[in-house]
């Protein structure tokens, strides 16, 4: 069983809800009215307009959000992907490389250089697990733990920069979490 299918990680203390199945996703779409009828879709040329494409909106929003983080992270001398890894470790403690990769949806070819750079800066350590040398555990160093205190103000500063009322923030997060679950369920259905 993969870590994403379990309620809790073995070492990494994260609680993740189980992903939706493809059937559940389709049922939820029908109940919520998210499925477009042919009448709602409009002519094919309308659907190809850039502003009508979800991928473009998500891409631009992601870039703009990361741009808000960038100067805050520059002060800490870390990148946004490094911040995500550190956030996992601040919240969950020691985690395996595999667990971090699953949480961030990164393959080892992307994650390994990122972890090497964090180790070179003295923020994390990598250590093979004694009872299974195939597993590499990632832990914070004292410098990595200290950085959490400096990073503590980042979420509030980002929230202020977004100027999003709390209720809208919660709705947006809920919708994005549903989208991620649906996309993950669809990805898993194609793999099986």
Gist of the model:
By secondary structure, this protein is mostly helical.
Overview of the molecule:
This protein has 192 residues and is mainly alpha-helical. It has ten helices and three strands; from the N terminus they run αααααβααββααα. A three-stranded antiparallel beta sheet has the order 1-3-2. α4 packs across α9. It is globular, with a radius of gyration of 19 Å. It starts with 21 loop residues before the first helix and ends with a helix.
Mind sketching the topology for me?
Layout: H1 22-32, H2 38-41, H3 44-47, H4 54-76, H5 80-92, E1 95-96, H6 97-104, H7 108-120, E2 124-129, E3 132-140, H8 142-151, H9 154-162, H10 166-191
Helix pairs in contact: 4-9
Distance between the termini: 14 Å
N-to-C series of helices and strands: HHHHHEHHEEHHH
Low-confidence stretches: 1-11, 13-22
> Which structural class best describes the helix and strand composition?
mainly alpha
- Percent of sequence in beta strands: 5-15%
- Which overall shape is indicated by the principal axes computed on the Cα atoms? globular
The total strand number stands at: 3
Whole-number mean pLDDT? 82
What radius of gyration results from the CA coordinates? 19 Å
């Amino acid at each position: 069983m993969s870590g994403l299918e379990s309620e809790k990680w073995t070492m990494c203390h994260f609680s993740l809800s189980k992903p939706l199945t493809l059937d559940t996703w389709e049922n939820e779409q029908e109940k919520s009215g998210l499925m477009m009828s042919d009448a709602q879709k409009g002519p094919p040329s309308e659907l190809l307009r850039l502003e009508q494409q979800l991928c473009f909106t998500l891409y631009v929003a992601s870039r703009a959000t990361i741009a808000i983080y960038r100067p805050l992270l520059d002060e800490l001398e870390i990148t946004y992907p490094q911040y995500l890894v550190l956030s996992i470790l601040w919240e969950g403690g020691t985690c395996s490389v595999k667990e971090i990769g699953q949480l961030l949806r990164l393959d080892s070819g992307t994650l390994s250089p990122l972890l090497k750079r964090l180790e070179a800066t003295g923020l994390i350590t990598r250590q093979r697990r004694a009872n299974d040398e195939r597993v590499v555990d990632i832990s914070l160093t004292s410098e990595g733990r200290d950085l959490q205190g400096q990073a503590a103000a980042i979420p509030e500063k980002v929230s202020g920069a977004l100027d999003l009322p709390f209720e809208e923030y919660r709705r947006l997060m809920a919708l994005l979490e549903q989208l991620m679950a649906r996309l993950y369920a669809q990805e898993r259905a194609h793999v099986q």
